[in-house]
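Problem 12. The chain below contains 192 residues. Write out its predicted structure in token notation.
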Amino acid sequence: NGFGKTDDVTPAKTTTMGQSGFLSFSGEIEGDISYEAYFNLLGSDVTSATEVAMATKKFSEKLSVSVGRTYLNQGGYDNKNNNFATIILSPYTEHLLPLPSSASMMMVSSSFGNLGKLSVMLADDVVSSEGNTTINKNKRQPASMIEWMGTFGVVTPLVQLVSYDNAHSMQTAIGVGVSAGKFTGYFDYVMD
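Solution.
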């Protein structure tokens, strides 16, 4: 059948193909309030189907506050530039991210012009993934994430610091992205 594989390796052999379907909404209310929603059409219920449901209030050109559910700032550029569901659900990489792909959160972001953007996020890390595996076994919370993304012409450095499990565990990501014309590339170093 073209999918031959031995039984003693992970992931196990399969003859199924992945399926996905998403519905996305975004817009502005009153000019300084924006919203974004992203639903997985294959979710088993409304809660599991809602990957993003977030509102952002822009107080000035330099300061904004976001609340709701969104993707978490973790895993460096590799996580930012790829489909979160693919990263999380891949049997090869499912244990690389300490927290689920999206969670309830509050984030404050500040822009510093040419120096980039700094974001501080607090997220609920007491959640369960697919199946019966609990992400935060000790029921400790919240997780905190600090992210800085610079803007220096075609080069965009990235630094992420993630503290989870009630500050008993940490992930650090350092990366650099380059975008020039039709070329886009990035390099990450992620340590957990």
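Discussion. DSSP finds three helices and ten strands in the chain. Students who got a different answer should revisit the alignment rule from Section 12.3.
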